[in-house]
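FAQ: What does a ligand-bound record look like?

Like this one, built around nicotinamide-adenine-dinucleotide:
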Amino acid sequence: MKILVTGSCGYKGHVLVPKLLAKGHKVVALDTQWFGSYHQSHQNLNCVKGDVRNIESIPFDGVEAIIHLSSIANDPCGDLNPKLTWEVSALATMQLADQAKRRGIKHFIYASSGSVYGVKEEDQVTEDLELKPISEYNKTKMVSERVLLSYGDDMVVQIVRPATVCGLSPRMRLDVSVNLLTMQALSKNKITVFGGDQTRPNIHIDDITDLYIFLLENPQVTGVFNAGFENISILDIAKTVTKYIPVEIEVTASNDPRSYRVNSDKLLATGFRPKKSVEHAVREIIEAYQKGELKDEDRFYNLKWMEKANLAL
Ligand SMILES: NC(=O)c1ccc[n+]([C@@H]2O[C@H](COP(=O)([O-])OP(=O)(O)OC[C@H]3O[C@@H](n4cnc5c(N)ncnc54)[C@H](O)[C@@H]3O)[C@@H](O)[C@H]2O)c1
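The answer part, i.e. the structure of the complex:
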């Protein structure tokens, strides 16, 4: 199958695209390449440096499925330039869906976010709860979901609300909790935790990328799915890291109240099973760092890099 992957040079895209190629798919990998591109050349890979907003420039010919990952991918980055955030993360999603319908592309997989729920009091956050997104980033995800669901009669629409992703990628992100805390221990010999008791769900990068492939292979599974399998506190993540790197954990006051437990029973009922844990991610990051394959670099922090390179203009 020929698949268009937007945001293909991001943290998830760099793990997903090689998996798709290994399965024999052809991939059109569209990305502005803000954080670089580390894909190895492959006869079935067409890397296109381009902007998802320039819909006419996207080579849709022969594309049978879209996996839409591109966005201004976290709260502080989304706040840098809300107009850009809405254009990239919401408007372009609608334009992609519109093109898919016009071109007879029958399969659309969307990377939404578990953050669409906002702050929830409920013990278990299930897909049917009211969405109360807080940031521009979360709001674009909520609106994109509704837009895509309106195309449900035209194509298979599969929407995933992933928890925070952890683990290694050739385009690493060190601004996501497990990766951040592990790198703090490695490069600063100390972990600083804001608040600490906020419970957050997590998912390993191998599981979230396997999930997109599972959905591609299971078009009968449609709708919206939470995808988070370990609901643990930030302090417990820090303690997991200190099992391997015994450093001090400093707990300071937090201004981020979000605490939630995602329930992924609906996804598990489809037959999908995660294979990895937060602890796998911690161990993999430590090993890569100790081998000299991973360093603490600015380009691995979305906000720092977007500000440094003036990407939000
Ligand atoms: N990483 C997580 O913890 C997490 C959790 C939930 C949801 N998500 C969502 O999954 C998706 C992928 O996340 P990620 O962690 O790989 O993020 P990322 O920031 O590493 O990747 C996003 C990619 O989109 C590209 N991009 C940005 N604007 C673009 C544009 N206008 N046109 C084309 N490409 C553009 C960037 O260059 C980047 O490579 C995002 O939509 C994100 O919101 C991520």
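Follow-up question: can I read anything off the structure? Yes, for example: The chain has one domain: 2-308.
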